[in-house]
Amino acid sequence: MLDQKTTTLDIDTPGRGLQEITPAVARWIERTGLQTGLLTLFVRHTSASLLIQENADPEVQADLERFFARLVPDGDPLFRHRDEGPDDMPAHVRAALTAVQLSIPVLDGRMALGTWQGVYLWEHRSRPHRRQVVAHLIGS
Prior knowledge:
A hairpin with a 2-residue loop joins strand 5 and strand 6. The chain is α+β, with helices and mostly antiparallel strands. It is 25% helix and 39% strand. A five-stranded antiparallel beta sheet has the order 1-8-3-5-6, with helices on one face. The chain has three helices and eight strands; from the N terminus they run ββαββααββββ. The N and C termini lie close together (7 Å).
């Protein structure tokens, strides 16, 4: 018989950059008691995103940030939407180019991530924010 569990994780970000949330998600999965299923994560914001990325070498995260800084620079005159500053519209574009939802299999009570994979919240705004990630796990 299938069961479903949900929660909302509040994540405080220090500002722009990738913040690993794997441990917080793993602790919640363990508390559910479910061993096998499908985990869905969804970030409830338009200027942050979720991704699975390497968690061994921090230069990978720094390289991703440098790439996106070149691709979608703050203050680009192309953008007219600047209600919350020069990083406002670039943050929306960065979120549109990445993902706001992830699906991850759960096996033996753990996310079926690869050896060097971690789950990250990517804050696209330059200032700190409190972000919400909704987690839904269906399984047994």
